[in-house]
Amino acid sequence: MQTGKPLVAVFDTKPYDRDYLTAAAGVGDLTLAFHEFRLDANTAFAAAGAQAVCVFVNDEVHRDTLAALASQGVKFVALRCAGFNNVDLKAAKEFGISVTRVPSYSPHAVAEHTIALILTLNRKTHRAFVRVRELNFSLSGLVGFDLHGKTAGIIGTGKTGRIVAQILRGFGMKVLASDPYPNTDWAVSHGIEYTANDIIAAESDIISLHAPLTKETHHLVNREFIAKMKKGVMLVNVSRGRLIDTGELIEALKTGKVGSVALDVYEEEEGIFFEDLSGEVLQDDELARLLTFPNVLITAHQAFLTDEALAEISRVTVENLRNFASGQPFLEGTTL
């Protein structure tokens, strides 16, 4: 516990992070020191004098990083995101460092981006936009398919997965779902059927991933899963990049087993997504290969990027920082 006006070192920040966190913090009770670079063991020195740090999805909060933070008196790590697979929670406990996250900020933001990806990829509006600007009004190669009457598979029915499923039901799709903890009342009320992942793979025209990254879900989409899929399936991932084995996905795209892919996350996105690399040579060969496919649509982890989501992320993060400073309990459901 700290008292007074704590210094918070905020890592991996972009202009929108600074704007929203500053607005949420207001004036007087917190001092926020913003850093554009990511937190890792080599940059932890930047937290000198801070009692807390605030980090994002690609910061490396591993044992050596936590040891460096603890040696400088840091007692609190505030994640301004939902995922926490980049944090060694066991080590944090050993060093006496509390960790919180923002478990839910705007599931509608992520769900709506999922739908945007599906519609764009299916109807090829991104390609049509480029053509028309070049005065190419040909429709060749832009054929899509009706969502109505098709089958969608939702893997993971947390808040975001449930919203995506409901929207797709609104398109007149049959929706299958899987989750270790099924919400059967919700499924019944929306005409959604829980089933096994193997059935989802075999029957779905579109598969959308909304599962957290765990030991069980790491490379959930692997060679065996892909082999069970319908030929030409659309695969969408706005959850965690490591749910998909990228090498196997590329092979499936080359053979046509997977018909199209939309990704807002990538398993080796650290140091790439959120950065402007337009003047550099991309060093990630698998990502470079994915970008060559005309049936692959990639956005750089922007599903969360709405005014409402950024405001809620900042509100929860700042409130937990204030509670840390005053010795009050952290917000319910945010402690790890």
Describe the structure.
With 336 residues, this protein is of the alpha/beta class. The protein folds into two domains: 7-105 and 306-326, NAD(P)-binding Rossmann-like Domain (Rossmann fold, 3-Layer(aba) Sandwich); 107-298, Rossmann fold (3-Layer(aba) Sandwich). It has helices at residues 15-25, 63-71, 89-94, 107-123, 125-133, 159-170, 184-190, 197-203, 223-228, 246-255, 285-290, 307-326, and strands at 7-10, 31-34, 52-55, 76-79, 98-100, 151-155, 174-178, 193-194, 206-209, 233-237, 258-263, 296-298. The strands form two sheets. It has a seven-stranded parallel β-sheet, sandwiched between helices. Strands 2-1-3-4-5 form a five-stranded parallel β-sheet. Strand 7 (174-178), helix 7 and strand 8 form a beta-alpha-beta unit. The radius of gyration is 21 Å and the shape is globular. The model has no long low-confidence stretch (mean pLDDT 94).
Short description:
The chain has helices at residues 15-25, 63-71, 89-94, 107-123, 125-133, 159-170, 184-190, 197-203, 223-228, 246-255, 285-290, 307-326; strands at 7-10, 31-34, 52-55, 76-79, 98-100, 151-155, 174-178, 193-194, 206-209, 233-237, 258-263, 296-298.
Percent strand equals: 5-15%
Distance between the termini: 16 Å
Q: What's the story with the biggest beta sheet?
A: 7 strands, parallel
Q: By helix and strand content, what is the structural category?
A: alpha/beta
How are the elements arranged and paired?
Blueprint: E1 7-10, H1 15-25, E2 31-34, E3 52-55, H2 63-71, E4 76-79, H3 89-94, E5 98-100, H4 107-123, H5 125-133, E6 151-155, H6 159-170, E7 174-178, H7 184-190, E8 193-194, H8 197-203, E9 206-209, H9 223-228, E10 233-237, H10 246-255, E11 258-263, H11 285-290, E12 296-298, H12 307-326
Parallel strand pairs: 1-2, 1-3, 3-4, 4-5, 6-7, 6-9, 7-8, 9-10, 10-11, 11-12
Helix pairs in contact: 1-12, 4-6
